[in-house]
Amino acid sequence: MATDALPALRTNPKLIFFTDFDGTITLRDSNDFMTDNLGYGHELRRQANVDVLENRITFRQAFQEMLDSVKNTSFPDCIKQLCENIKLDPYFKDFFYWAIENNVPVVVLSSGMVDVIRALLVHLIGPDAHKMQIVGNEVVDRPGKSRDQPGGWTIQFHDESGFGHDKSLTIRPYAQLPEAQRPTLLYAGDGVSDLSAARETDLLFAKKGQDLVTYCEREGVPYTVFEDWESILATTKDIYEGKTDVKKVAAQQAEAVQNEGIEIRADGIKPK
Q1: Catalytic: 166?
Q2: pTM for the whole thing?
Q3: What percent of the chain is modeled with pLDDT above 70?
Q4: How far, rounded to the nearest angstrom, does the alpha carbon of residue 117 sit from its chain's CA centroid?
């Protein structure tokens, strides 16, 4: 298997961790921040997310409209404001450095923009952030304008799908590897941009109280809940060390939700 096409295989890992960025690695969604504060506002943005969840419009349509509403701010100024306001989950660094030490590639799959994500990760983590592969959309200049001008930038989507970036397209080639070559695949996400990835890995971590949990419950997609990366690290360590497996973790969550109305986390049971 050529590792150029599947770069996360280069070090022959036994586990690969795919993750969303906004609202999953970070405490706030950078695109929501821009839309709410520099664009058309929270109410319209939230309604767009609901419309996506209810299949009334595609994520691609909603996201394009959100970013188009950020028309009075240059791209460098957006990055400056994001660096001042977006914070990491307090436990993500612990997870990331454990992953480096244990040869677990971390692959960021985002419906946001690579330039935004890279700038924030380097700002929040430092040079080691470059050890994460990022797959997402690009920022381009609008025709006749420059990203250095207010409204002079826009998004160039990763692919032609209704998601703009169909995250399953990155995960599926790993999932289809022969069993002897295939690492265990995990994914963490929180919202409507993660719907395309929800069924693709061996275990899905869905953030408590967010739209991805709603989708998984409605569609019967196996998952386990997380509140922060402390619980993700605990579960991932147990899987990595053979203390549990992905089927047991998902089965515990399903049984808890069905029978007792509670959510199972790696660090214990919590009432819903």
Answers
A1: no
A2: 0.89
A3: 94
A4: 11
